[in-house]
Amino acid sequence: MLGPVILAASRSDKMRRFISAAPGTKQVVGRFIAGETVEQVVPIIEDAAGKGLEVTMDVVGEDITTPEQAAAARDAYLELVGRLKDLGLGTKAEMSVKLSMFGQALDGGHELALANVRPVVEAAAEIGTTVTLDAEDHTTLDSMFAIHEELRKDYPQTGCVIQAYLFRTEEDAHRLAAAGSRVRIVKGAYKEPASVAYQEKAEIDKAYVRILRTLMDGEGYPMIGSHDPRLIAIAQELGRKAGRKLDEYEFQMLYGIRSEEHIRLAAEGHRMRVYTAYGTDWYGYFMRRLAEKPANLLFFGRSILTKG
Fold first, then answer.
1. Residue 31 near residue 72 (C-beta atoms within 8 A)
2. Are the C-beta atoms of residues 216 and 246 closer than 8 Å to each other?
3. What is the distance between the alpha carbons of residues 209 and 224, in angstroms, rounded to a whole number?
4. pLDDT for 3-49, tens place per residue?
5. Residue 147 and residue 97 in contact, taking contact as beta carbons nearer than 8 Å
6. Would the pLDDT of 305 be above 50?
7. What's the rounded Cα separation, in Å, for the pair 223 and 176?
């Protein structure tokens, strides 16, 4: 029951200040956030590639209040693309973007977000990689899917994310499970009302399996975003039943969580991609990681007590 409380705290400026100042915060944040700058995350990308892993890079930050901040977010991703190009890592690292960072919530936000994300998608394509549009709260999804559809006209490899806990997602999955699509399925990590989303873990898990079956039976490329051993095993079985080869879908897990499982799946021949976040505006991302798993919160609490 702590998850909704933590998600509410993720929107509190008072809690942001308190947690940022806590003595143990830096240690725990470092578990989930790969660094603050491109140069700090380059060795992590190179290390992952050396282990047979791929990555998707997320420049964290969601509290965008001006067009100038949205343009700065765009430029941060363009800087990342430039470094990937220099390193020759374009085929091993894609990017994940939240359209809120590109100005989606501002006046005229839909058009602004599309204008800001397009050059990132173009630059990614030029170095042999792509971009996935992350899903945020349910009020943003119609805009996200419309931008996704628009980008795919010129860059069909552009991916998107769907969230199993939303009632709408089963219908979205049927629409998206088409040839050439790239779809990441996750459980969902935002505080959503009972009018639009399942609230119980068992119901969310059942929906996840139904949606995953739709994706596996479709003609697109499923990306399984989960650390749940049971769901991973189900995904493997659904892939076999659908006649998919191991390179016709992939697993995705968060940086800093179940790292040994990353290696195991890659060693079995699966494509394994590590969702790797970096940047200075880490608070919202960090709080959602705490909300997803009680053990993360206990780890954080012990660190504060130890360092206090």
1. no
2. no
3. 11
4. 554 455 445 556 555 555 555 556 666 677 888 889 999 999 999 99
5. no
6. no
7. 12
One of 184, 213, 271, 273 is an active-site residue; which one? 184
What pTM value is reported for the model? 0.86
Given the residues 134, 182, 213, 289, select the one marked as catalytic: 134
Tokens at 16, concatenated:
């942001």
Q: What angle do CA 260, 245, 181 make, to 5 degrees?
A: 95
pLDDT at 307 over 90: no
107 catalytic, yes or no?
no
Is residue 118 annotated as a catalytic residue, yes or no?
Answer: no
List CB contacts of 282: < 8 A, sequence separation 6 or more.
29, 32, 33, 60
Assign 221 to helix, strand or coil. strand
Bridge partner residues of 242 (DSSP): none
Nearest Cα to Cα of residue 224 among 251, 246, 206, 248: 251
Reading the block at residue 190, the tokens are 């935002």
Whether 130 contacts 119, CB under 8 Å: no
- Whether pLDDT at 112 is above 50: yes
Count of alpha carbons within 13 angstroms of residue 237, beta-carbon side: 7
